[in-house]
Write a structure and sequence with these properties.
70 residues, mainly alpha, 3 helices
């Protein structure tokens, strides 16, 4: 049977094809923290996905504001 698509499988496949800077986050909040921690001035952050990913942008902005205030 075909392999099911899951976050760990996708991560493994991306790394196998040379993508070194890919990470897994168990939820949107953790993902927002990871993105904000890596973001630098001038970066463009693009979110793609399904489900409740539309709320990711607000979470990322909140984390970036916290980072800037620190």
């Amino acid at each position: 049977p075909p392999e099911r698509v899951s976050s760990p499988v996708l991560l493994e496949k991306l790394r196998a094809h040379g993508q070194r800077e890919v990470d897994y986050a168990p939820n949107l909040e953790a993902g927002a923290r990871q993105v904000a921690a890596r973001a630098q001035a001038g970066d463009m952050i693009l979110t793609l996905g399904a489900g409740n990913v539309s709320s990711a942008a607000d979470l990322i902005l909140d984390e970036l504001r916290r980072k800037e205030a620190a």
